[in-house]
From TrEMBL:
Keywords for this protein: CBS domain
SMART domains, per database record: CBS
InterPro entries linked: CBS_dom (IPR000644), CBS_dom_sf (IPR046342), CBSX3_CBS_dom (IPR044725), Diverse_CBS-Domain (IPR051257)
A Pfam family matched in the record: CBS
Protein name: Inosine-5-monophosphate dehydrogenase
Keyword Acyltransferase: no
PANTHER family: CBS DOMAIN-CONTAINING PROTEIN, CBS DOMAIN-CONTAINING PROTEIN CBSX3, MITOCHONDRIAL
Keyword Chloroplast: no
Organism in which the protein naturally occurs: Pseudorhodoplanes sinuspersici
Length: 143
């Protein structure tokens, strides 16, 4: 199973935001779209960062309500780890677990084509395990 499989089922819509936006702008989009992260894109759609709800909570912890007016460039993660559609699930699970992050932008030829979350990966893995269990049950019943 690959990242492409996940994207084919969940869609490839990615919420992005400009680096000139502030934390309040990001919170509004996160709440409206019911998502956990935004990809920050610059000129030509180039990824320059990612901001998650956890990043925002950390800023509130450190700066209180003043965090609302902070530019995303002060909050975002600049070293964005990405994946590609052909990447396999075990690699993605390892990457997310060791990196301790829950969202991976998906790039194809340096173009943003989607984003996957740990929830997407777990959902797909559970479906795969169910399918395997059903196949084993059928095999045992016919043997």
């Amino acid at each position: 199973m690959t990242v492409k499989t996940i994207l084919s089922q969940k869609g490839s819509d990615v919420a992005t935001i400009a680096p000139t936006a502030n934390v309040a702008d990001a919170i509004k989009i996160l709440c409206e779209r019911k998502i956990g992260a935004l990809v920050i894109t610059g000129a030509g759609g180039r990824i320059i960062g990612i901001v998650s709800e956890r990043d925002i909570v950390r800023m509130f912890g450190a700066h209180g309500a003043a965090a609302l007016d902070m530019p995303l460039t002060e909050v975002m993660t600049r070293k964005v780890v990405t994946c590609e559609p052909a990447d396999k699930m075990p690699e993605i699970m390892e990457l997310m677990t060791t990196g301790k992050f829950r969202h991976l932008p998906v790039l194809e030829e340096d173009r943003l084509v989607g984003i996957i979350s740990i929830g997407d990966v777990v959902k797909m893995r559970l479906a795969q395990l169910e399918h395997e269990q059903d196949a084993l049950r059928d095999y045992i019943q016919t043997a």
